[in-house]
Amino acid sequence: MSTSTLRLATRGSDLALRQAATVRDSLASRRLTVELSEVETTGDQLTDELIHRLGKTGAFVHSLDEKVLSGELDAAVHSMKDMPTERPDELVVAGVPERAAAEDVLVTPDGIGLEDLPEGSVVGTSSLRRKAQLLAERPELVVEPLRGNVDTRIEKLLAPSLQEEHQERHEAEEERKGEAGDPDSDYEHPYEQDVEAWFNGLAELERRALEREPDTEYDAIVLAKAGLDRAGLTHHVGTTTLDPEQFVPAPGQGALAVTAVDGDLAADINDRLDDTQTRVETTAERTILAELGGGCVAPIGIHARLAGGVVRTVVRVLSQDGTENIQVSRDLPVERHIDAARELAAELADRGADDLIQAARRDSEGADDDAATAREEDE
């Protein structure tokens, strides 16, 4: 680290910059000057590649950590759920700030809930886990891949309904003009605003959505609540928070991680930034994930909550089509939560989770690219 400034690596997406800014501001409030440095990652470069086809997680992580390992930058900010469980020995997770919401949300233009989606509705998601959990609950839904950052995904969702409304308003405007010269006409314009005034009242995101030509029309999409909240887009859409006992979140979802080379700087960041509850919860989740394996090729949800002297943990492992499911809930003693997490993972493997993960790996290796599901940041 330079004498007075900590150089903090971050991806350059809007959401990543927002997340890094929260870390910067938190450290700045503790009398540490922080400078953000944008780094392009492998995941950013492969805009048309299906991320889980890279063979392992880390497409959005390694490039940042390499800058830290080389000494070019001092630390890096990651979405914890994007971090592979296997890490370079020299690097540590120096700081884990207080976690945001871990849950997933169903997002629709009008706020309709999952149970009310008509049969055959198209739901977009970039996650194998979310796809499997959706199909487990509503097998008659059509789940289609959805790629892009949070803004892009919301635009893709809103595009069809906004374009339909624009067309209806335009037709009504033309009909009104056609009837204007007829004194006997009883035509009543259905809209208070004309097309131009309506367009001028749209938010910038809605205007971008109106100009999109989506390949797929989505009736709903599923995102991480934390990402939607951090992006400040909740007011543009209707959301329904999905029960984390049923739609079990990804390990580390909603949490950030600051990595640094093991040493004095890492210890300093830890003292200034680390949240004990979040550290315990995410450690339990990532320990189970590491023991199970599977990375981003298998639908695995793990969610832990520290409550008193126990870490209440739910794990759900599914087949990729959602037809098979193994789920366990367990209270892990906080004083030995790491060992208890390993024991729980071993129990899950014995109960068939390992078979599901191996089957998912074989399916992933043999799948065509256009039949697979993309993974991209949404928190």
Description of the structure:
The chain has 379 residues and is an alpha/beta fold. The protein folds into 2 domains: 222 residues, Periplasmic binding protein-like II (D-Maltodextrin-Binding Protein, domain 2), CATH 3.40.190; 138 residues, 3-Layer(aba) Sandwich (D-Maltodextrin-Binding Protein, domain 2), CATH 3.40.190.10. 38% of the residues lie in helices and 20% in strands. Helix 5 packs across helix 7 and helix 10 crosses helix 11. The radius of gyration is 23 Å and the shape is globular. It starts with a strand and ends in a 13-residue tail after the last helix. About 5% of the residues have low confidence.
Spans of at least 5 consecutive residues with low confidence: 46-56, 368-376
Q: Per CATH, which architecture of the largest domain?
A: 3-Layer(aba) Sandwich
Query: Which class of the largest domain in CATH terms?
Result: Alpha Beta
Q: Mean pLDDT, nearest integer?
A: 87
**Main sheet: which strands, in order across?**
2-1-3-10-4
Apparent shape: globular
Order of helices and strands: EHEHHEEEEHEHHHEHEEHHEEEH
What is the alpha-carbon Rg in Å? 23 Å
> Into which percentage range does the β-strand content fall?
15-25%
Main β sheet profile: 5 strands, mixed
Helix/strand-derived class?
alpha/beta
Determine the N-to-C terminus distance.
28 Å
Helix content: 25-40%
CATH topology of the largest domain: D-Maltodextrin-Binding Protein, domain 2
The number of strands is 13
Count of the domains: 2
How large is the count of helical segments? 11
The CATH superfamily of the largest domain appears as Periplasmic binding protein-like II
